[in-house]
Design brief:
This protein is 68% helix and 5% strand. It is built from 26 helices and six strands. The chain has a six-stranded parallel beta sheet with strand order 3-2-1-4-5-6, with helices on both faces. The protein is elongated, with a radius of gyration of 30 Å. It is found in: Membrane. This is Monovalent cation:proton antiporter-2 (CPA2) family protein. Keywords: Antiport, Ion transport, Membrane, Potassium, Potassium transport, Transmembrane, Transmembrane helix, Transport.
Length: 596
Amino acid sequence: MATEGAPPFFAESIVFLAATVVAVPIAKRLGLGSVVGYLAAGAAIGPHGLALLGSGEDVLHVAELGVVLLLFVIGLELDPHKLWRMKRDIFGLGTAQVILTGITLYGIGRLAGYPFSTSLIAGFGLALSSTAFALQILQERGQLSSAYGQRAFGILLLQDIAIVPLLAMVAILAPGEGPSTFSQIASEIMIVLAAVAAVVLTGRYLISPVFLFLAASRAREVMLTAALLVALGSAGIMHSVGLSMALGAFLAGVLLAESSFRHTLEADIEPFRSLLMGLFFVAVGMSLNIALVMANWLFVATGVLIVMGVKGIFLWTLSRATGSSNSDAMRVAVTLPQGGEFAFVLFTAAIGNSLLNYSTANLLNAIVILSMLLTPVACLGLDWLAERAKARGIENPSIETFEEATPTVLVIGFGRFGMVVAQILTSEGLEITAIDNRPDRIEYARKQGYKVYYGDATRADVLAAAGAGKATLVAMCIENDKVMGKAIDLIREGFPDALIFCRATDRAHVLDLTKRGVDFQIRETFESSVVFGRAALEALGTPLDRIDQIEEDVRYRDEERLAEQLTQGMYAGADKLHKVTPRRNPTKDEHDAAAE
């Protein structure tokens, strides 16, 4: 499809955007999720549908960058310590799932009469789940950080690593290829280790100082360019030595997870990730040959049922055997039963090495795509069972949804005021996330042992990345009144359930915050001034009970004055500044009588 005089891919872009704008909202309205909408849009506009676009293969090469950016963002959410704690899920549960599922599917293929190499490649290719698909479902449901979400991610991460030995297996099985010498194998291993070391050292010692320098320039577009450069550059290094690009981006993300710029990087990359992920799923949908599926519907349908059934059983069994509750094991089983995008890569490599013919590979690809389409249906089925059980008042742990209950606080602004607030909160063992837009403050706070991230509180995407949607309370400790006002509006609009506690710079700011309906506000100098005044009275010989009476009276008159100023203006209630506190504990009625 082309339009004379238009830029390259102009007409194709319009078709892609129009199809997704129509299909995705319909799919979400039906409760199927956006991924099914993208796949349906691709099937409709692709060469096997309305033929509005050509082959999806060219689009897929560009769209794979969406998977790269997705793994980079996921890496940002996992610091190395957390990743190490997941080693059992990654190398134990993940490895067992791939091996057991692959061997079982291989055995089924051999029993069906397929050759050794075809059964082996098909079995292990279909044992891999879709990282892009599963993570998209978990993120849409807000369950990536849940117990089962983390276990599912560990399995997916191992599967991304597994594509490397599986591609090596294809090369070994290829006819006419002699075995590699020891020196060739050693040389390839050294190259791979050097690439990994380059990514690790760069991410550990070079990236943070560079971002610190760029942040001082306050040029958002440069920060955005640098974020994309880090994600794609690390992916390119890994790809150059034969490893997965997504794995390289994930490693870079993990190394930057403890960086002060974590949340800003995530917010900057998110729009590109979302767009490219949508393009990826459209391209996958375009490659679905509907005519081929219809001609071989019994083979494809049987294949889909076998793949999803075998994977689901192994996922549930292994999850239960390694400590998951029945509820979590079922959630893992219905989230990861589909075939994955790396199966396309493996089957394409097998075709190039004369191990699979085109018709078999296309049928296997159709099984992968249809299993993707049925995964949201399986998730909806489990949700339906949960709702039915809930409606009947049945407590069924096998279909319960996991929810986190730990309260968290987002501290915005980490100067002297914010640091003291953080100290109070962490003294209770509460989890806090703090952001600030001044690199010097961030560096100082980090030296004091606080994890503070670079972020602009006037950007809704940065607030979301920093966890405003999950925070029970947002502590606004910013000095700039205008910045605070804009941030409050964004939080009220995007995250209405969060409590908003504010530091007010002066009395006028208090009035503004009161009108905005914040949950709590306090002038930054008021309490310290009261304490100062108490100390002065004590030094002058005033009895402690008299000081308590004065403090109570001053606070009461201050509240009265604020109430008048809200309705009558800044200069109302000035007479309340100059009254002498009565020599007994005043009540409200006595205050009113004295005022008359």
